[in-house]
Amino acid sequence: MLLAKNADEIDESMRLWVDPCNNFVFGDTQGNIGYLNRGQVPIRTIANAWLPVPGWTGEHEWEGSIPFEDLTRISNPDSGFFVTANNRIAGEDYPYFIALDFAPEYRARRIHDRLTDMTGATVEDMAAVHSEIVSIPAQVYSEIIARTPPRNVLSAAAKDRMAGWDGSMHEDSVAATIYSAFRQRLHRQIINHLLGPLADQALVAGGRGAPGHVRQISSLLVTHAQNGDTSLLPPGSAWNTLIAGAFADGVADLSDTLGDDMDTWTWGRVHQTHPTHPLSAAFPEMSEQLDPPSVSMGGDGDTPQAGSYPASDPYTMTGMSVARYVWDTADWDNSRWIVPLGSSGHAGSPHYADQTSTWADVALIPATYSWDTLESEAQTVQTLTSDVDKPVRSSYKGSHQEYGVTIEQNVMVDMRDGVKLATDIYYPAIAGVRASGQFPVILERTPYDKSVPVKPTKANFFARRG
Question: Based on the structure, what is the number of domains in the chain?
């Protein structure tokens, strides 16, 4: 990849990429842009998409991988841009199964709408896209709330705060807080109905399983509420009744936790980061030095400025941008970037969390490229040298090829549970005959196709070196 000279070459450099399968975007200095869903994606039965399937019957064996030429890709689209925010890229007519779980379109839609009429984009224009905080679900629910009679005086006051709100999840917004509390209550009501005794577990679970299901249900509810579809609601329920109740309950929650002064119910007061160093639990007396600072931010899980939070701990952010970039391929030194903490992982370093406040403000800093600029702007310089009087491993000459290779393929090796695993054994060889004597062994097991080019390449490399 680092040797690629243009967009076509960097696309081709991904041919042997195995994992992770992810969105890969690139551009070159000639103005070409590309998108590739890279990786070895197995071809498998659709039954395996929905539930675990028996792996011992042979009915659901993987049938190779999607050919590299058929992977989802976009090159120089007529629109002049493409958008990826973990949303679905391949259309319904794509001949291969990739996944069932994609992020809703909300974040991608807001980015798309901002780029559609943009011409002559600058670094500043693209940096502003990172700070987009208008929530499409908030707009949908706000319209319904506006025509729903309030249940009590407190609800009426909260409804007045949302009048004319555009769905912007700004950290100074009171409406954003009221909307978020309402949606928490609405989700809990409907998910309790849909999942029954599993609801409590689903709403507090971590990882990717249950939260993924809850996210998909939550997205469906937005569409259903907008269209008046009651198929997911408890029998006999109507959207206006449920929304009125959830709104009243959410506002009551805020009153209990934040007090009676609605002016103080700003989104940034509750929507914050709380990063915790892994060692803080073991050394609580050092937590103040180890834990990076907490910051308030706008956005939520449905906005390009990502700031999602779990149902089990509203509204503490756990899903945010790990980095923001804007690359200027016409002038690399004009590029920008930012990370949530700093460039050092050492808690005692001045650069441990010195980017946090800038990141929280959704601002960017220069991403310097040219060597002259790096040298002139460097704050410190570290030079690594060796002690010439005490050379390190001076006798080590490096590995070199001494043997040929013979391969014994598909040797079925018994496991403790009786399962047999197909195994390829690579032996050092001389003149095509397995070399005598004992050699070190490297064992590698993979759930993927053991014949993909990278596997034999590695095995041959080590076998030739004994």
Answer: 2
Residue 141 maps to a domain: no
pLDDT over threshold 90, residue 205: no
Whether 177 is in a domain gets the answer: no
Quick one: pLDDT at residue 397?
A: 60
Residue 460 located in a structural domain: yes
pLDDT digits (tens, 9 = 90+) for 240-261: 999 999 999 999 999 999 999 9
Mean pLDDT, residues 377-387 taken together: 80
pLDDT in tens, 296-331: 999 999 999 999 998 888 999 999 998 999 999 999
* Domain endpoint, select from 49, 80, 102: 102
pLDDT in tens, 80-125: 999 999 999 898 899 999 888 889 999 999 999 999 999 889 999 9
Residue 84: give the domain boundaries: 7-102
Is pLDDT at 266 greater than 80 in this prediction? yes
Pairing of strands 316-317, 272-273: parallel
pLDDT for 101: 85
Q: Which residues contact 78 (CB under 8 A, 6 or more apart)?
A: none
- The residue with greater pLDDT, 293 or 447, is 293
pTM for the structure as a whole: 0.80
Residue 81 falls within a domain, yes or no? yes
For residue 58, the domain's CATH number is 3.60.20.10
Domain boundary among 50, 71, 102: 102
3-state secondary structure the chain: CCCCCCHHHHHHCCCCCCCCCEEEEEECCCCCEEEEEECCCECCCCHHHHCCCCCCCCCCCCCCECCHHHCCEEECCCCCCCCCCCCCCCCCCCCCCCCCCCCCCHHHHHHHHHHHCCCCCCHHHHHHHHCCCECHHHHHHHHHHHCCCCCCHHHHHHHHHHCCCCCECCCCCHHHHHHHHHHHHHHHHHHHHHHHHHHHHHHHCCCCHHHHHHHHHHHHHHHHHHHCCCCCCCCCCCHHHHHHHHHHHHHHHHHHHHCCCHHHCCHHHHCEECCCCCCCCCCHHHHHHHCCCCCECCCECCCCCEEECCCCCCCEECEECCCEEECCCCCHHHCEEECCCCCCCCCCCCCCCCCHHHHHCCCCEECCCCHHHHHHHCCCCCCCCCCCCCCCCCCCCCCCCCCEEEEEEEEEEECCCCCEEEEEEEEEEECCEECCCCCCCCCCCCCCCCCCCHHHHHHHHHHHCC
